[in-house]
Amino acid sequence: MIKSSEALAPLLDVDSLSVDYISKGVPLRAIEQVSFSLAAGEAVALVGESGSGKTTTAMSIAGLLPPTAKVSGGDVSYRGKRLPIDDDEAMRPHRWSEISVVFQGAMNALNPVHRVLKQIAEPCILKLGMSQSEATARARELLELVGIPADRGSAFPHELSGGMRQRVMIAMALACRPSIIVGDEPTTALDVITQAQILKLLGKLRSELNLGLILITHDLSVVAESCDRAMIMYAGRIVEDGLVDDIFNEPKHPYTKLLIESIPNPAKGKQILRPITGDPPTLHNRPSGCAFRSRCPSAIQVCATEVPRLDLSVQGRVACHLHRYSTQVQRVGSDA
Amino acid sequence: MTDSATEVHGRRRLHATRTFLLQFIEKRGAQLGLLALAFFIVMAAMPNRLVGPLQTAITATGIPLVPPSREQFLGTDEIGRDVLNLVVHGARISLTIALIATVISLIVGTTVGILAGYYRGRVDVWLMRLTDFFFIVPPFVLALVIAPVFVEVVGRGGEILGFRPSLFVIILVIGLTSWGFVARIVRSQTLSLRERTFVDRARVVGSNDLFIMVQHILPNLVPQIAANGALVVANAIYVETALSFLCLGDPLQPSWGTMLYLAQHAGAASAGAWWYLGAPGACVLIVSLSFVLIGNALDDTANPRRRVIP
C-alpha cells in the first residue's frame, strides 16, 4: 500500500496526550491519555465541567500551557509533523500561522488604550513581517470578514459591544491564515442572541476558509448548534466521543446521559430536572478505576478496579465498562 | 455611509476629550492651579520684557534695603537690586530646573518601574533595592559630593543650553533623588497590568518583551505618570529651593532658593526686610501648591474611583 503520510495525515492528531500540573513538587495529572484527531473543515467540541481538563487539552494543542504544567506523555501532530508543544519558543512559528486561539473574555484580551484596528494588525506585522500600511489594509479586510464595517476599526475596545469585541478577537485569530482555531469558551458572557451570531459567524468562516475548529465549552446548546462532533471530558479523560446527533439522541456513557437529562427540554412538558449528585473529583483525589463511578447510578464492581478504555463503538468512542459488556452480550446474543 | 461613520466616531472621540477637559477645568483646584501657573510661566517666558535685564551689583538701580514703594514694587536687596527684577528672573531658573529634573526622574523612574514590575523575580528585587537606595539618599549630601566632580569634568565657565554648569548639578541631584517615588508607583501598576489577558494575547501573537512593555503596558500607565508627574514637579521645586538655600545654587543665575539664601545671609529677617524674604518664599509656595492642585485635579478626573459623585 503506497501512501503519503503528509497527504493522508489528519489536520491535527492528538495521540495519548497527558499533562501534569506540578504543585509543590508533586505532579498532579490534569489530562490523561487524550487522543483524537481533527480534519480540515471539521468542528469539534470539548465539553466538560470545570476542572475536567478541556481547557488544558486545548491550550496544550496551542502550546500555551502555563509554566507549572508539564507534558508527561503523548504527541500532538499537525499535518503529520510533531508540534513542540512544551517549548514556548519553538511553538512561536506554529502559533497563529497554523493554530490560533480565540480567548474568552474579549474585553480583557484587548488592550484598552489601543484602537482595535491596530491590535488586529499586530500579528500581521510581527508574524508575517508586513509593513504598517499592508497590515492595516489586512486588518480592515479581516474586520469586514467578521462582519464589522472596516471604519469601526478606529474604535477603542470599550466603544464596542461584547459581540463586536468577540468578532474582533476572531478577526485577530484569522490574521495569519491559520488552519485551526481553538475557541476557549468564545461565547461565554455573551447574551443568547449574540452568542448565536458569533457561532453562526464561526460556522460560516469554517466552511469558507476550510478551518478546523476546536470549541471548548460547558454549554451543550453551543455544541448542538455549531459542531459536528463532541467529546465529553470527565476528570481529565475523554469519556465519550461521537457525532453531535448521536450524542444527543443516543448517549452511551452514563455521564453523558445524565448531562443531557439535566438540560431542560420544553418539548417533554413539565418535568423535574435531575442534577448529577456528588462533586467531580479534584486533581488530588481521583478515585481508582473509573473516575465517574462514585456518581454513576449504574456502576458495577469492575468500575472500581479497572480504568475503562476509550473503545471504538458502533458510533464514535466510549470509555465505559457497562457499554463494553453490553455490546459483548449483544454480540454473543446475535451469534447464538 | 462609511465616511459618515468615521465622522461620527471622530466627533465622539472629540466629545470624550472635551468632556475630560471640562471635568478637569470644573474643579476649583485645577482653575486656581492653572491660573497661578500661567502667571508664573509668563514671568519665566519673558523676564527681560517685563522687568528688564537681570540686575547685578554693578547695574543695581536702588538704595539698599528699601521697603516696597512705587518705584521698587517689591523693595530692594542689600546691594540695591530690585527684588521684583530678581524674583521674575528667578522664576525662569526655578521652573526650568524643576521641569528638567522632573523629566529625568519620570524617564528613569518609569523605565526602572516597568522593568522591575514586568520581569519580577531577581530583576525586581535588585532594581527595587537600587530604588530604595536612591529613595533614601539625602539630596543635600549627594549634591555636595556630585558638585565638585561635575564642575571638575565640565569646567566652571561656559554655558550649557544657556545655563551654567552648577545649575546642572542641581538638576542632576534632584533627578537622581526623586525617581524612586515614580519607580514604585509604576512598578506596582505594572505588576497588575502584566497579569491582564491582553498582555498574554500580545505575547501569543508574537510580541517580544520590549514591544509589550512599550506598546501595551506604557500607554496604560500614562494617567498615573501624569498625575504623579505634577507632584514630582512640586517636590522638585521644593528640593531646588532647599539646595539653593544651602548655597549650592549659582549666585550669578539666582533662583528663588538662591534669593532666600542671599536674604538670610544679609540678615534680612533681623533687619526687618520682610519683602526680601517674603517675595521668593511666596513664589515657591504658590508654584508648588499650584502643581499639587493640578496633580490632584488630574487624578480626580482620570481615576473613576476618586471621582466625586454629584
Any descriptors?
heterodimer; A: 336 residues; alpha/beta; eight-stranded mixed sheet; four-stranded antiparallel sheet; disordered N terminus; B: 310 residues; mainly alpha; MetI-like fold
- Classified in CATH, the superfamily of chain B is MetI-like
Q: What overall geometry of chain A do the principal axes of the alpha carbons give? A: globular
Structure classification of chain A: alpha/beta
How far is the N terminus from the C terminus of chain A? 37 Å
Strand residue content of chain A = 15-25%
Q: What is the C-level CATH assignment of chain B?
A: Mainly Alpha
Q: Helix and strand succession of chain B?
A: HHHHHHHHHHHH
Helix % of chain B is over 70%
Q: What is the fold named in CATH at topology level of chain B?
A: MetI-like fold
Q: CA-to-CA gap between the ends of chain B?
A: 39 Å
Q: Please identify the oligomeric state.
A: heterodimer
What does this structure look like?
The complex is a heterodimer of chains A (about 325) and B (about 300). Chain A is of the alpha/beta class and about 325 residues long. In chain A, about 35% of the residues lie in helices and about 20% in strands. Chain A has helices spanning about 5-10, 55-60, 90, 105-110, 115-130, 130-145, 160-175, 190-210, 220-225, 245-250, 255-260, 320-335, and strands at about 10-25, 25-40, 45, 70-80, 80, 100, 180-185, 210-215, 230-235, 235-245, 310, 315-320. An 8-stranded mixed β-sheet of chain A has the order 6-7-8-3-9-10-12-11, with helices on both faces. In chain A, strands 2-1-4-5 form a 4-stranded antiparallel β-sheet. In chain A, strand 4 and strand 5 (about 80) form a beta hairpin. Chain A is globular, with a radius of gyration of 21 Å. Chain B is mainly alpha-helical and about 300 residues long. Chain B has one domain (about 35-300): Orthogonal Bundle (MetI-like fold). The model of chain B has no long low-confidence stretch (mean pLDDT about 85).
